[in-house]
Amino acid sequence: MSAWKPSAGLHTYQVQIGSAKYGLSPANDSAEAVAAAINAKAGDKVRAVALNVGDSDTPEYRISLQAASLGNAGLAILDNGAAAAQDQTLGSSASYIVNNSGKTVTSNSRAVAIANGLTLTLKAGNANKTVNVTLTRSSSALSDALQAFATAYNGTVAALDAQQADAGGALSGQSVVRTLQQSLASLATYQSDTGFSGITELGFDLSKEGTLTFNPLLLMSADIRNSAGVTAFFGSATSGGFLKFATTALNGVESAASGTLKLAESATASQISEMNGQIADQQDQVDRLHQQLLQKLSAADAAISVMEQQYSYLSSMFQAMQNASQQYA
Length: 329
Known about the structure:
four-stranded antiparallel beta sheet; single chain
């Protein structure tokens, strides 16, 4: 940190940060204008503040410079190329000694990296005090994934319940519904010998309706007690654990070659094809009966026409005979 007092006369200003110099273009020679020009030019490296060290009647302004990073940055305001009168307090880098190892780790900020992936934020300095650091891994990503799993699981339970016989679903009575319910239930009742027997010890609660509720605080507690056990319980999709079991179960459902859904789809397609064939056969029979009926109706119509002609002929004969009989009476 350094402080500067403007002098009289014409000025060409620069701010020096270490070995680098930055030209300034203040609106005037006041401390406020010079400070504003420094912040505009190099505000990411240094912070300038105009301070009144006098009183309201006889103000006396200084510019206070503070480096943005820790360490001895070597700050100065150059007035016509020369360092202006200033008081300076040299800074130092943040440092930390890990476990009395004698190895000092330094940083130009309060964040000090003491190991790969491990950074400490230093709050204050005390060379004679030992600080214990307790490390726990973040479980937020796993919590988010497990919450998403519970949501998807419950959605699937609801979809399958909608296909039960009493619900009147399109798959009512189909064995595939029961098979899928068994596959789903196997995930919620998965057993392990890795330190946690099942998912109910890692934040899940299985209701009597078969739905899951997830509590991230229970997962966090389990991870603090036995993080290795949590890792072993979940495993991976290829090496074992819950993820391997779940992957195998889902492949059994979704496999394009032999999955439950694919087999059910193929069976349904076969049934539809068979029913379409039966419908086509029935339609052929109906068409044949219709044609036969049309033929019989046509024959009957022709026979009725002949009978009408014969009736008309006989009626004419009887009428003629009746007329002749009346003449001879």
